[in-house]
Design goal:
mainly alpha, 6 helices
Length: about 110
């Protein structure tokens, strides 16, 4: 199952909980500028591996709704004991899912 065997189990549980959560479960590191830069850098690197333009990945974090959804997923995972790396993997999976759900014309907006 890889380096983080519980990653997908934790991710699936967090995604289910995300839909029912009534509070804003930001991860503890969300207010730390250096940690956020590291996290977004990890997201851009993961996006490149999946042929997702940096512009799309960064755009996810500039949009309030998308950013909150992604950070809440990380926060819920953190609450259940997932490491920073596992949280980053789950968020990059979610970014990839969003990218795969865009149409070709929508993708053109993110071409350099």
């Amino acid at each position: 199952m890889g380096v983080f065997p519980m990653h997908h189990v934790n991710q699936n549980r967090a995604e289910r909980e995300l839909g029912t959560n009534t509070e804003a479960p930001y991860p503890s590191w969300a207010t730390k500028e250096n940690r956020m830069k590291e996290f977004i850098g990890m997201q851009k690197a993961a996006g490149r591996r999946n042929n997702i333009p940096d512009k799309f990945v960064v755009g996810m974090f500039l949009n309030d709704y998308a950013r909150d959804r992604l950070l809440f997923l990380a926060g819920i995972m953190e609450k259940h004991g997932s490491s920073f790396e596992e949280q980053a993997m789950a968020v990059s999976d979610k970014v990839n899912e969003y990218w795969l759900n865009t149409t070709q014309p929508e993708r053109q907006q993110f071409s350099d």
